[in-house]
Amino acid sequence: MSRSRSRDRDRKRKRSRSPERRSRSSSLSSTSHRRLKKEKKGKRRDETSAERAARKERKREKKAWKEEKRKKKEGGGGGGAEWGKYGVISESDIFEKEAEFRLWLVEERFINPETLPKSKEKELFRTFVEDYNTATLPHSKYYSLASHSAQLSALRMGESLVSTSETYDARADEEALRKSFRRERKDED
Questions:
Q1: What phi, psi does 96 have (nearest 5°)?
Q2: pLDDT mean over 39-50
Q3: Is pLDDT above 50 for 177?
Q4: Measured torsion, CA atoms of residues 138, 140, 145, 149, in degrees rounded to the nearest 10
Q5: What is the pLDDT of residue 77?
Q6: pLDDT at residue 82, as a whole number
Q7: DSSP-assigned states of every residue in 95-137
Q8: Which of 77, 82, 98, 106 could join 71 in a cystine, given CB atoms 3.0 to 4.6 angstroms apart?
Q9: pLDDT of 130-176, one tens digit each?
């Protein structure tokens, strides 16, 4: 007899709701919550195959979106801002990055740096420093104006740009391999 009572108590404990679940459904009574679940289940039974496929596709898209968001948050996703990707500067670097900062003021903020008071200039440079360090400036020329100018002049001279991206390019790798084989054949002949 005592065993059956303890079993009943264990069952009741398992069935009782946790505090989190209680707080979530506090606005709905348990009977209305069950009724809503049944209605939703009934609607799914009446679904056509196209509606079911569309629902599953939405679910898949939502899952992919959440996964992408999680990867960005962890820093593993592409296109995310990286701290110090182009170097780390501080407010004391205002004279070293003056050209980039002035270009950013004119092109992005539409502010004439000649008419800017010193206090406002320091405040805007803090914003520039934050964007620089987090690699969120809109263009690479704001990180290094000299290298950007060199690239532009190389383009004007007709030279091809060397890819500076860190991604793997399979076609370029295959082309390099082909060229090395051709050189080896020429050396053998």
A1: -75, -35
A2: 72
A3: yes
A4: -120
A5: 44
A6: 81
A7: TTTHHHHHHHHHHTS---GGG--HHHHHHHHHHHHHHHHTT--
A8: 77
A9: 999 999 999 999 999 999 999 999 889 888 766 555 667 778 888 88
* CA nearest neighbour of 150 among 161, 163, 139: 161
Q: Would you say residue 27 has pLDDT above 60?
A: no
C-alpha distances out from residue 102 to 12, 31, 99, 151, Å: 70, 65, 5, 20
**Tokens 């090395």, located at residue:** 180
Q: Exposed, middle or buried, 114 (CB in 10 Å: 0-12/13-18/19+)? A: exposed
The single-letter code of the amino acid at 70 is R
Question: Helices 98-107 and 145-156 meet at what angle, rounded to 10?
Answer: 70
| CA–CA–CA angle 141, 139, 123 (5° rounding) | 85
Query: Which residue, among 143, 142, 160, has the nearest Cα to 151 in the 3D structure?
Result: 160
Other beta carbons within 10 Å of 171: 7
Q: Which pLDDT does position 78 carry in this prediction?
A: 46
Is the confidence at residue 88, as pLDDT, over 50? yes
Structure tokens given for 31: 């009977």
CB 105 within 8 A of CB 116: yes
| φ, ψ for residue 88, nearest 5 deg | -120, 130
* CA separation for the pair 3, 79 (Å, rounded): 61
